[in-house]
Amino acid sequence: MVMLRGLKTDGKNLARKAGVWSLRQYLGFALKTTRWTFLVNERAWPLLTSQNGQTAVVAFWHEVLPLTPALWWWAEPQNPHIRLHVLISRNRDGRMIADVVAPWRIWSIAGSSDSKGKNKGGAAALRRMRASLRHGSLVAITPDGPRGPRRQAQQGALALAELAGKPIVPVGATCFGLHLKSWDRMIFPLPFGRGVFACAAPIEMRRQKAAEHTDQQATPAQQLEHALDTMMHLAQTPVNAPLPSGYMREKIVLRPLSLMPSRVWQVAATVLSPALPFFLRWRQTKGKEIPARVREKMGFPSQPRGSGNLLWFHAASVGETVSILPLVLACLAQKSDVRVLVTTGTVTAARVLVQRLAHPRVIHQFMPLDVPRWGKRFLDYWQPKAAVFTESELWPNMLGLCHTRNLPVMLVNGRMSASSFKGWQRMGPVARRMLERFAWVSARSDEDAQRLQQLGATKQLETGDLKTAAPPLPVDEAELARLKERLAGRRIFAAVSTHQGEEQQIAQAAKLIRRDNPDVLVLVIPRHPERGADLSVMLGYVPRRGAGQIPTEDDLFWVCDTLGELGLFFRLAPCVFIGNSLPGVLGGGGGHNPFEPARLGCAIASGPLVQNFTDAFRHMAAGVTIVHNAQELAAWVRDMFANPSRRQQLAQSVQQVATANADLPERLAKHILAQIW
């Protein structure tokens, strides 16, 4: 019996899904093949398209409900940031309507006016609609719905407009179709016909006391009814008839706006998806994936979601992960009922996150590869309320899926290097479709902001680099004291985030430094710790921190190939060279984050290849020394050892820059949380 009941339920669900799909296909076909004319009052147009953040209550009679997706298709292309919520009844028919229109990004708020002592969700719906209006969404409502009487305005629309302090835009519509024998004589559109929308000037509804009304004065409900009936009459007039003063006419063929940035990318990722598990298996053999968690990169979760609102942060690698930690903590502190999902792309970033942010309301997962089916699986399970991407993490399929679900997406520390900008310019339409619908973008610098704006990021907040807002790197004080005792009397210099192609030059510089400073110890800290063993061999089988080895007095080098200990090394070394920046480095260079050593009072040198951090190095120009080869690097280190006051002056200069935006995470957290209501 239990099995039969289960099969019966499954059958009903399948039939319902088939019915919703069929109705959506037909309705979309009928509306897309209709030749539409829009008669819009010039004062209503900026409200219907939500220009400059303006919002309104959009009111129409229940009988035109099937036609209203066309109004949305007209408005949405004019403002990619627009969002629409519609009040739809909680009954079975209402839920079916909500499912039909949801893929067109028309989001329902369930509820209707309470009546006869029954709670139909009216009060809760009213609160949600008010919040939507205050957060920049349009809200559509049928004043005579869901059960009539036909063309008689109830109090819901009036109460909402007054409560939110927003105007009402009355809308009328008609098209070639049938009038059903329902209580509202609903219009059932037929394809290949003509249709008209008429949108009146906005009206302000102010509730008046009963004693204020006279026999000649219409009530607010009567005013709304009159405006809606007038628009229905205007929609039924001949298409080329003279328009009332202040109206504009537009003839257009409509269709739902596609939000997937690139169909080519979408198809290519789908076609390649069967081979990607083998690619992930290959990465496992290289130590670049965690075998027990590799399925996360296909969208499968490995942890429970939990209940409540979930904020999703994505940071690709170590630098981005470290930069968002203060922002994540600020969001958690400002909203006690919010949980945070942090996704990363690399194993190293995941380990850093676990070391630096152990919080009961933080979950880590690996970001799925940019395959539509995998991204959909990821979003279906986690259901975030908002997504925050970091720096230059722009994945067309995932962003398209977020936009399709009307999920607010934000970009923090937005970075767009000159080379990346040229690449995205060659794919201008793809970049525009990705960026124009971002809720907002906070660029790392004015230069990045300008490039992002040219690519399509129209709504931008103040610029500011989160890497200047992070707290100093943590340290194990006991271990710091132990190492200071073991290394007492030695001059220490650190080369951090080094790459292949420049480490030979660093070794050459170390030998030059040793001529004048025989007690020098050079900490070589590779960007990728897994290279530690090979680097030790290349430098002459020198001790490795990752193997638990401590340098002796005779050792010139110490390979520091561990994770999460930069705070320790920067406190040991008063002068630091930042790698991936010398001519000859493999991969073309680009530099690394200079803020971490600067924040701890280190004097800093770098090679000239710093294109990935141009703005940061420009702001620190007075305190950072640029060297071009081993000889110049050795000369700088000798100078820093010989002139402590000069070294301290340079360190203080960069430290001031590195701590300039201490309140940036708090400000951005407020903007992020404003997207959740």
Automatic annotation (TrEMBL):
Gene3D superfamilies: 3-Deoxy-D-manno-octulosonic-acid transferase, N-terminal domain (3.40.50.11720), Glycogen Phosphorylase B (3.40.50.2000). It catalyses: lipid IVA (E. coli) + CMP-3-deoxy-beta-D-manno-octulosonate = alpha-Kdo-(2->6)-lipid IVA (E. coli) + CMP + H(+). The keyword Repeat does not apply. SUPFAM superfamilies: UDP-Glycosyltransferase/glycogen phosphorylase. CDD domains: LPLAT_DUF374-like (cd07983). Residues 80-150 form the DUF374 domain. One of its GO terms (molecular function) is Kdo transferase activity. GO terms for biological process: lipid A biosynthetic process; lipopolysaccharide core region biosynthetic process. The keyword Transferase applies. Residues 293-468 form the 3-deoxy-D-manno-octulosonic-acid transferase N-terminal domain. Pathway: Bacterial outer membrane biogenesis; LPS core biosynthesis. The record marks 391, 467 as: Transition state stabilizer. One of its GO terms (cellular component) is plasma membrane. Its EC number is 2.4.99.12. Keywords: Transferase. The active site is at residue 320. It is an enzyme of class 2 (transferase). Involved in lipopolysaccharide (LPS) biosynthesis. Catalyzes the transfer of 3-deoxy-D-manno-octulosonate (Kdo) residue(s) from CMP-Kdo to lipid IV(A), the tetraacyldisaccharide-1,4'-bisphosphate precursor of lipid A. This is 3-deoxy-D-manno-octulosonic acid transferase. It comes from Acetobacter pomorum.
